[in-house]
Amino acid sequence: MRHEGNLNSLRNWEKAGHPRDNELRIIIPASLGAVRRGLENIKTGLAPFGFSADELSSLEIVLAEALNNIVEHAYTEADNGLIEVSLTQIPCGLACTIIDNGKMMPGGEPPLGLQANLDCDRADLPEGGFGWFLIRELAHELDYQHIDGQNKLSFRLAIGEMS
Questions:
Q1: Where are the beta strands (DSSP E) in 20-160?
Q2: Is the keyword Transcription assigned to this protein (predicted)?
Q3: Structural domains of the chain ordered from first start
Q4: Under a CB-based contact definition with an 8 Å cutoff, are residues 64 and 35 in contact?
Q5: Residue 32 phi, psi (nearest 5)
C-alpha cells in the first residue's frame, strides 16, 4: 500500500469515534490524484445505502468541487495535508462534513458562486468559476467555519431521503 499524507497530523483533529451503520468516513491526502481515488472509494462505500446513479452523481459533483478547491487553494504550499470527509444518512438526505487544516477561505466565507454569464461567444466563456455555483445549487444548509486553524464545511444533499 502506498503511503500518502502525514497521518501524524490526525492527532490534532477532533476525536470522531467509531462510524455508525448510517455513516461513512474517509481521510484523503490533499492531492488531486488522491481526491479522485477518494471519490471512487466513497461511491463504493455508499453502495449499501442504495442511492440511485443520479443521486451519486450529484454527490460526486459537490464533493469533487469542494475537495479539489481544498487541494488547489487551502493546501497550496503544504504537501502533506489531509482532508476528512464524513457522510451520514439522515431522514432528510445525506449530511456531509469536510474538515481540513489548510488556509481559511478568503473573507472567512465560501464564495457566493454566482452563475456565470453564458450569453457570449464560446471563446469568451469563463474558464472556471462554476464550482461554487454547482455546490450552492445542489447543497442545502451550507455552513463554513474556521476554528483553531481548522476548516469545516457542512451541508446536506437531498438524496436518499428516508420515508
A1: 23-29, 82-90, 93-100, 139-147, 150-157
A2: no
A3: 22-157 (3.30.565.10)
A4: yes
A5: -65, -40
pLDDT in tens, 27-55: 999 999 999 999 999 999 999 999 999 99
Q: Residue 38 is which amino acid?
A: G
- C-alpha grid cell for residue 92? 432528510
* Nearest CA-CA partner of 96 in 39, 140, 34: 140
Q: How far is CA 76 from the centre of its chain?
A: 17
What is the C-alpha separation between 121 and 109, in angstroms, rounded? 32
Q: How far is CA 5 from the centre of its chain?
A: 17
pLDDT one-digit tens code per residue, 84-109: 999 999 999 999 999 999 999 888 87
Q: Where are the alpha helices (DSSP H) in the chain?
A: 32-45, 53-69, 131-138
* β-strands 139-147, 23-29 pairing: unpaired
What are the grid coordinates assigned to 1, written together?
500500500
